[in-house]
Write a structure and sequence with these properties.
It is built from eight helices and no strands. It is mostly helical. It has a domain of about 60 residues. Helix 6 packs across helix 7. The protein is elongated, with a radius of gyration of 21 Å.
């Protein structure tokens, strides 16, 4: 690719694409070194589909701050769902406990750690 790139003009669209590819080469080839890395981002796009569809209906969040809070909550809910946890059960438990937990133990409230302490039956109940 480097040989072909040197034959192209700086202003060529193809040259710009090749420059981008060469700069990001380690990221583009990471899946070759780690089999857990998915070749596509289909799962992420499917997770965002509901938000994209809702965007057509949710014209206003009330304010910029309301929009930020909505994005924050949707992120928490999506993270719980991606970890096969009932978002309502997880959020209710986290909100009830977070004020009394030392900062050094906050990681225990993350969805993937929370599930270990509560078991699947509690996580899937609702």
């Amino acid at each position: 690719m480097c040989d072909n790139r040197s034959k192209l003009s700086k202003n060529s669209d193809v040259a710009e694409a090749m420059d981008y590819m060469l700069k990001a080469w380690p990221a583009f080839t990471a899946f070759l070194d780690d089999g857990r890395i998915c070749l596509t981002n289909n799962a992420a796009e499917r997770a965002l589909r509901g938000i994209a569809l809702g965007r057509k209906s949710w014209l206003f969040a009330g304010s910029d701050r309301g929009g930020q809070r909505t994005a924050f909550m949707l992120s928490l809910i999506s993270t719980a769902k991606l970890n096969d946890i009932d978002p309502q059960a997880w959020l209710a438990d986290v909100l009830a406990r977070i004020a009394n937990i030392p900062q050094s133990q906050l990681h225990d409230l993350l969805p993937w750690n929370w599930l270990v302490g509560h078991g699947r039956s509690v996580a899937e109940a609702a």
